[in-house]
Structure formats: C-alpha cells, structure tokens
Design a protein that fits this description.
Blueprint: E1 19-25, E2 32-36, E3 39-42, E4 44-50, E5 57-61
Antiparallel strand pairs: 1-4, 2-3, 2-5
C-alpha cells in the first residue's frame, strides 16, 4: 500500500496598498490588559497596519487571573490569519 499526501496551495495576491485595523479589547478592566506589537497596553487597543504585516497581539492577565481564550470577529471581506 502506498499513501500519497498532496500539499495544496492557494495564491494570495500581494496587498501592499491595503490597510487593516486591528482592535483588541479586554472585557473587564480588572481581568488584565492587551497589547498590539508591545504598544498600547490597556483594556482597549487599536492600530492600523499595512497588508502583509506581521502583528503580535498579547493578553496580559492581572494578578489572580489567567488567560482563557480569544474570541474573534471581523468586518470586511476576509479574516486575517
């Protein structure tokens, strides 16, 4: 028996002129803060980035709390990965 595994790829055209806004919020001020690329620590942070940018989003739990999970929503024609 032979098992053949094929990798399939989808072309993603460059989006150099496209801007995306990343908004992150923490639902309760006491539970912790959030940051985008290490900037803007708070309960609500928003910043715009050029298409193709790599962005790091971080949850910073307060003392006595632990991070549970992200919930994700988006506005527009595609979800960022």
């Amino acid at each position: 028996m032979v098992l053949i595994i094929v990798a399939n790829y989808d072309y993603v055209p460059p989006t150099t002129n496209q801007k995306y806004t990343v908004t992150v919020r923490s639902p309760f001020d006491t539970g912790g803060t959030v940051t985008i690329d290490g900037v803007g620590t708070g309960a609500f942070v928003s910043n715009s980035f050029a298409g193709g940018s790599s962005v790091t989003v971080r949850a910073n739990p307060s003392s006595g709390y632990s991070f549970g999970a992200w919930s994700l929503s988006y506005v527009g024609s595609s979800l960022l990965s």
